[in-house]
Amino acid sequence: MNRASPPLILMPAMTDANRWTEILTEHRDWLRTVIRARLFDLHASEDLLQDVAIAVLAQDNRPTEQEHIAPWLYRITLRKIINYQRFQGRQKNLLRRYGRLRQHAETDDAEQGEALHWLMQREQAAELRTALAKLSQGDREMLMLKYTHQWSYAQIASSLGVSPKTIEYRLLRARKSLRAELTRVSGEVCHD
Q1: Which of 6, 151, 160, 172 could form a disulfide with 155 if both were Cys (CB 3.0 to 4.6 A apart)?
Q2: How far is C-alpha 105 from the chain's CA centre?
Q3: Which of 90, 124, 146 marks a domain boundary?
């Protein structure tokens, strides 16, 4: 009796685009943090992250070695951030006017007790944003990766393509700078 063997089911091979989609998914959180550290705009970070993904998939010269992927993604992300910042520079006045109108509308809607609590939170957040804005972009990135994602020195170093000792030194310097800026900003607010 001649039995027919079951049909052979072949799984499609993973395409290069699928592989890079998985790599981008793996690196998405820290890339988003890098973008947010430089832009301070949560909505724009998602759009910019998509632009990074499109740029990565459009590249022909993608790295093949694992240790080169994160620094390569970092460089592409920086290029996209710079282009976005140029665009934002052209629309700066419009955004300022919108921010002032929004601030007035939020203040009018708040009740007196809630308004004080809201105002204190806004002042503290504004002081922190002002202090962070005074730091270098690299210092902001490292602080946000360290304290929003709880990354180790080794993880940050691997992603930025530097040694863990360099990250340790830079984070120490960044924390000192942030403390000094917060003290200065708080002092300016108290004297106004």
Answers
A1: 151
A2: 29
A3: 90
